[in-house]
Design goal:
The protein is α+β, with helices and mostly antiparallel strands and 162 residues long. The longest helix has 22 residues. It is globular and about 40 Å long.
């Protein structure tokens, strides 16, 4: 009978640490996709941040901080900590990321938050490609859409600004 208490504590501590995994792209065009593990403690921090948002605008601002924090934790587990802004400052370091890597990874992180019901004023859409300045350069971005009764406002979530 006394053995059930340690077993219960072990079970509860395991579920509290269980967390969730997300594949984060790097290497340009998602060449590498290591699985990043987020603990329930880390996700709880993100949840508290997002639940403090008072409206859609505040949720977008908080999302940029939350995604930045998730990327920071991912950098502790992978080579993405080597990534530098833009596509040319990285050189040949492992972990470099282009906009395809960022838009794919950010969308995956946003979908994880959405599945956990952490987003109250937005929904996650598929990444989009858009022309930037010239016809030869295309930029990819994660996208969220504000939940409204009639008009939906779409917002690009460019990870390099996080």
């Amino acid at each position: 009978m006394r053995n059930w208490l340690p077993a219960l504590l072990l079970l509860l501590s395991g579920s509290a640490l269980a967390g969730e995994s997300v594949r984060i792209c790097h290497g340009y065009s998602c060449l590498a996709q290591p699985e990043i593990r987020y603990t329930e403690g880390q996700l709880g921090q993100v949840r508290r941040m997002l639940f403090a948002a008072v409206d859609a605008e505040n949720e977008r601002k908080t999302l940029s901080e939350a995604i930045g924090r998730l990327y920071g934790w991912a950098g502790e587990q992978s080579d993405i900590h080597n990534d530098r802004g833009g596509n040319f400052a990285d050189g040949h370091v492992p972990g470099k990321m282009d906009c395809i890597d960022h838009s794919t990874s950010t969308t995956r992180l946003l979908r994880m938050l959405e599945a956990r019901h952490y987003l109250r004023w937005h929904r996650v859409l598929e990444p989009v490609a858009r022309d930037v300045a010239t016809v030869f350069f295309v930029h990819y971005s994660a996208v969220i859409e504000e939940k409204t009764e009639s008009n939906a406002a779409r917002f690009a979530v460019d990870s390099w600004f996080v």
